[in-house]
C-alpha cells in the first residue's frame, strides 16, 4: 500500500512538473512570437494605407452603423 501511494505521489509530481514546463514554454513562445507578429501587422497596416485610401469610419450614435466620416448618412432605423 505504501509503494502504491509512493508511485501515485511520484506520478503527481511528474504531472505537475510537466504541466509547469508546458505553461512555462508556452509563455516563452508567446512572448517570443508577439514581437515579430506586431511588426508584421504594422507592415501590413502600412502597405494597406499606401495602397488604398483610408476612410475613417465613424459609428452612428443613433443606429450604430459605421459610415465614412463626413459622408451623408441617413438612418434607416
Ligand atoms: Zn445612423
The overall pLDDT average reads 80
Radius of gyration: 27 Å
Q: What does the largest sheet look like?
A: 2 strands, antiparallel
Strand composition percent? 5-15%
- Helix/strand structural class: mainly alpha
Number of helices: 1
Keywords:
about 80 residues; 2 strands
Describe the structure.
- By secondary structure, the chain is mainly alpha-helical.
- The protein has a domain at 2-52.
- Helices cover 65% and strands 8% of the residues.
- The protein has a two-stranded antiparallel ribbon with strand order 1-2.
- The mean pLDDT is 80.
- It binds zinc ion.
- Zinc ion is lined by residues 60, 62-63, 65, 73, 75.
Short description:
With 77 residues, the protein is mainly alpha-helical. 65% of the residues lie in helices and 8% in strands.
